[in-house]
Amino acid sequence: MTRRKLRTQIKTIRAYTVRLSDDELQELDKLFNNYGRCRDLLYGQLCGINHMTDVENWRGPRDRIRQHEGKIKQARKAVRSWKKAYAENKTQNMKVPDSGTVRLARQKLLNEQFHIQGRHVTEAVKEVCMNLNSMWTNLGLKLKKIVQANESLAKEERLYLNYVFTASYYWQLILQGRENEAESSKESKYPVLRAALTKDQLRHCFGYIRRLTRKHKPYPHSSAARCMLYDEIMWKVIQKDGADHLDIMTAVSGKRKQLKLTGPFCYANKKKRGDVQLILDRDKKRLEVHRAIKAAVHDLHKSKKKKVGMDKGLATLLSCSSGHEYGFNFSQLVNAEAERINRRNTNRNEYIQAAKELRHELSALQAKLAIKHSAKTERRLRNRIGSLERRISRLEERHLGSKLYHRQHARKQCNMERIMNMSIRKMLLTEKQ
Question: What is the 3-class SS of 306-328, one letter each residue?
Fold first, then answer.
């Protein structure tokens, strides 16, 4: 009897540390900033068209970095041996290190340059390669939509372009101007699609691909140093004083940091712990652990049909004919957000009205300045206009910004959507029985 295989999906589970002390926050902040600077350097080195196919497997860039750092270590050893022999006056039969070896010996390793460990550099390479690989895939999908919307292209050209934007190997050769060096395989459709085009159509497609890529290609960088990737050796969860503690690798070799978790973390003590994403929340002064696991997918549609009456509301989100209710006190969450926005808008009205009056006075003075006046009066008007512009700019910068306003509302709205989804899923699982 064969056992039916369960379908699975990727699910992210989270764990949180207790509030960090100032010293712990400062130490982690320095580590995250150094890791972010290293990641930003790798983005600059690997985001070009010459590394399109390299980032598909992060081990290739990692091996090249290790090979270069190995040459630096060999050069350092050669220079160090020469200096030691020179100090002991034993350089008679020794070869003097050339200028290239000396320059190479002066270079710093990535972990020395950013004051982190070598394993942090490896994880930065892995993270950058995964992000860049996703970037090229998303760019290909975006350019395919542009191709579909271009009605001036022939059918053969559209088929050729759609295939190229999904095959990074041929896409890279075209961007580098080496399309004639493409090696065809039996499984590839590229030779057939290329043979269907005329010489002029092919030249037009090459130029079109380069123009679209140059116009829409993003140039990523690591501006916010708030997350780090840790592999299974760099982290673990240990039991200490009856509570779970997160044990992580720090920037200093041989030194580890233990941080208490807010609750038990039962997904850590597996044979393969896997990679985790560490996120430093500087506002709440805590460290978040995000881990992706495989969870079983429950099919809710294969159960027997069952008629259930349902009423959606605000005080209680869902009320069913079976007597069960889901999403209690949902109205309190909505009313709290509405009151918060009302208070925020009330406080902003004072500055909005002040800015409105200043703009009205500014427009009146600018209209008055257009009329001819004496030099003294014109100078007084210009000074007053400059003062008003500075006051308006200060109000807009300090009191009338919208970034924080929208970010806070989006966070509250996301929490409401989470509760709604949880209530709906709970209703489906309960009423299914």
Answer: CCCCEEECCCCCEEECCCCEECC
E strands, 355-410, are: none
User: Helices 168-175 and 199-216 sit at what angle, rounded to 10 degrees?
Assistant: 90
Would the pLDDT of 213 be above 50?
A: yes
Predicted confidence at residue 270, as pLDDT, reads 58
Core vs surface per residue 268-288: b (16+ CB within 10 A) or e: beeeebebbbbbbeeeebbbb
- Give 321-358 pLDDT, tens digit per residue: 888 888 888 888 888 899 999 998 888 898 889 999 99
pLDDT in tens, 237-247: 888 888 999 99
- Asked whether 287 and 278 are in contact (CB, 8 A), the reply is yes
**373 closest CA partner among 387, 384, 361:** 384
Residue 275's φ and ψ, nearest 5 degrees, are -80, 150
Distances (CA, A) of 362 to 267, 282, 392: 63, 41, 10
CA atoms within 13 A on the CB side of 273: 19
pLDDT-based confidence at 302, cuts 50/70/90?
low
* In contact, 287 and 29? CB cutoff 8 Å: no
Cα 210-213-214 angle, rounded to 5 deg: 80
- Alpha helices in 150-198, H assignment, sequence order: 155-164, 168-175, 190-195
Report the sign of the C-alpha dihedral through residues 253, 232, 227, 263, in that order. negative
Q: Where are the beta strands (DSSP E) in 198-308?
A: 227-230, 235-240, 243-249, 256-260, 276-281, 286-296
Long-range contact pairs involving 2-8 (C-beta distance under 8 Å, separation at least 24):
6/296, 6/297, 7/296, 7/297, 7/299, 8/294, 8/295, 8/296, 8/297
* CA 365/CA 373 separation, integer angstroms: 12
Q: Could you tell me the two tokens for 184? A: 């065809």
What does the pLDDT read at residue 211? 95
C-alpha 61/C-alpha 129 separation (Å) is: 8
Residue 48, Ramachandran bin (φ over 0: left; ψ between -120 and 50: alpha; else beta) = beta
The encoded tokens of residue 134 equal 């996703």
The residue assigned the tokens 């996301």 is 414
The ranges assigned to domains in the chain are 1-149+219-298, 150-216, 309-433
- Residue 172, CB-side half-sphere exposure with 13 Å CA sphere: 17
